[in-house]
């Protein structure tokens, strides 16, 4: 069977809505640009995260409108379906004009009209399913694809930037240096982490006086000021950012990450060999974040703290102090994360198709 990806042909990528859908698309596009002189095009929602990141990365972008249906009222579902139908008309013109050799969908509702258009026009389709639980869009679109790549399967993987997958962590990273803690709630932030983690850290740090600590907190753009003010009230010096585009370079030096458990987040953290406490979003579709977090915990690569646990500030602080005080535990957990990681460089991911 001939390969689905051929560098001598143009590539169309679609998907968006969250960093977990957008970042793999950006990295696949960059890998294609390194492989090929043929054009790549990203089709996504206008005015969205994907448009901003594609522009920043120098990747041509074409706007396509679509709508979601999960969690919507009946009128919202009808509006979503109508938006998808209108978007399919636009996508037919886009695919016909661009004439890609392959269309890759990375998830989210914006991919639906593009994938449907590609199928109508006979263009091969590959879908990425990075989570342990498949999303609705991929379940619906799966029969239209030549291949669905499952992120956690041995022949699949989640495409990452080339510098995320690091060599196995060494002990020096966790011993004799300042402890480095990164708090990240995903591309859109996580309100509960912004509210609870500062309190937990403020109660944790007095229990580890022998180590200096450096903290970075990605809050999401809308919560930057409130999160920064919360740390200031608690007397903690913390770098608070809305979004961290340089996340790949940061992860490789962290002692511990506290994060949500979206597939891309888990892939990036584990690929860097970083131990993490995962706090899954309780309302993620199909409970996929909880499944992602539990898979890592069961393999010894981190800990799963569900949201209600964060209400127990003192008990969380005691557990966090125990983790941070044990460099051997941090090292062993980081090594466990590195061994189980589903993350692979995007260029390698493309070559497997």
TrEMBL record:
What processes does the entry annotate via GO biological process terms? Answer: carbohydrate metabolic process; cell division; cell wall organization; peptidoglycan biosynthetic process; regulation of cell shape
Q: What are the residue boundaries of the Glycosyltransferase family 28 N-terminal domain, all occurrences included?
A: 12-148
Name the positions where UDP-N-acetyl-alpha-D-glucosamine binds. 18-20, 131, 187, 289
Keyword Cell membrane in record? yes
Ranges for the Glycosyl transferase family 28 C-terminal domain? 181-329
- Give GO terms: molecular function aspect only: UDP-N-acetyl-D-glucosamine:N-acetylmuramoyl-L-alanyl-D-glutamyl-meso-2,6-diaminopimelyl-D-alanyl-D-alanine-diphosphoundecaprenol 4-beta-N-acetylglucosaminlytransferase activity; undecaprenyldiphospho-muramoylpentapeptide beta-N-acetylglucosaminyltransferase activity
Q: Which reaction does it catalyse?
A: di-trans,octa-cis-undecaprenyl diphospho-N-acetyl-alpha-D-muramoyl-L-alanyl-D-glutamyl-meso-2,6-diaminopimeloyl-D-alanyl-D-alanine + UDP-N-acetyl-alpha-D-glucosamine = di-trans,octa-cis-undecaprenyl diphospho-[N-acetyl-alpha-D-glucosaminyl-(1->4)]-N-acetyl-alpha-D-muramoyl-L-alanyl-D-glutamyl-meso-2,6-diaminopimeloyl-D-alanyl-D-alanine + UDP + H(+)
Pfam families the record matches = Glyco_tran_28_C (PF04101), Glyco_transf_28 (PF03033)
For this protein, the Enzyme Commission number is: 2.4.1.227
Which GO terms of the cellular component aspect does the record hold? Answer: plasma membrane
- The answer to whether keyword Signal applies is no
Pathway(s) per entry: Cell wall biogenesis; peptidoglycan biosynthesis
Q: Predominant location of this chain?
A: membrane
CDD domains on file: GT28_MurG (cd03785)
Keywords on this record? Cell cycle, Cell division, Cell membrane, Cell shape, Cell wall biogenesis/degradation, Glycosyltransferase, Membrane, Peptidoglycan synthesis, Transferase
Topology relative to the membrane, per the entry? Peripheral membrane protein
Q: Where in the cell is it found?
A: Cell membrane
Q: What does this protein do?
A: Cell wall formation. Catalyzes the transfer of a GlcNAc subunit on undecaprenyl-pyrophosphoryl-MurNAc-pentapeptide (lipid intermediate I) to form undecaprenyl-pyrophosphoryl-MurNAc-(pentapeptide)GlcNAc (lipid intermediate II).
Homology family: Belongs to the glycosyltransferase 28 family. MurG subfamily.
What's the protein here called? UDP-N-acetylglucosamine--N-acetylmuramyl-(pentapeptide) pyrophosphoryl-undecaprenol N-acetylglucosamine transferase
**Which species expresses this protein natively?**
Leptospirillum ferrodiazotrophum
């Amino acid at each position: 069977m001939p390969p689905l990806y051929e560098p001598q042909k143009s590539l169309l990528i679609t998907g968006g809505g969250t960093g977990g859908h957008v970042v793999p698309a950006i990295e696949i596009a960059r890998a294609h640009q390194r492989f090929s002189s043929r054009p790549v095009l990203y089709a996504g929602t206008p005015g969205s995260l994907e448009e901003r990141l594609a522009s920043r990365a120098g990747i041509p972008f074409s706007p396509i409108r679509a709508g979601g249906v999960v969690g919507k009222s009946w009128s919202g579902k009808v509006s979503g379906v109508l938006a998808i139908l209108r978007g399919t008309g636009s996508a037919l013109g886009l695919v016909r004009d661009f004439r890609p050799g392959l269309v890759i969908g990375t998830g989210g509702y914006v991919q639906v009209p593009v994938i449907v258009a590609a199928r109508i026009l006979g263009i091969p389709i590959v879908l990425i399913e990075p989570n342990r639980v498949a999303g609705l869009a991929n379940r619906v679109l799966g029969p239209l694809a030549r291949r669905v790549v499952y992120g956690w399967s041995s022949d699949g993987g989640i495409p990452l930037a080339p510098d995320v997958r690091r060599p196995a962590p060494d002990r020096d990273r966790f011993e004799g240096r300042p402890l480095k803690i990164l708090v990240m709630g995903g591309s859109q932030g996580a309100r509960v982490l912004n509210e609870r983690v500062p309190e937990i850290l403020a109660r944790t740090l007095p229990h580890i006086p022998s180590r200096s600590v450096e903290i970075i907190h990605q809050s999401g753009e809308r919560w930057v000021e409130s999160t920064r003010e919360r740390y200031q009230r608690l007397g903690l010096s913390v770098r608070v950012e809305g979004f961290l585009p340089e996340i790949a370079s940061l992860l490789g030096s962290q002692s511990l990450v506290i994060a949500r458990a979206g597939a891309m987040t888990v892939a990036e953290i584990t690929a860097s060999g970083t131990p993490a406490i995962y706090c899954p979003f309780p309302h993620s579709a199909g409970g996929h974040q909880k499944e992602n977090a539990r898979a890592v915990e069961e393999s010894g690569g981190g800990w799963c703290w569900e949201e209600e646990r964060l209400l127990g500030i003192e008990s969380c602080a005691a557990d966090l102090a125990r983790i941070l005080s044990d460099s051997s535990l941090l090292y062993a957990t980081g090594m466990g994360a590195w061994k189980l990681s589903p993350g692979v460089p995007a260029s390698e991911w493309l070559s497997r198709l």
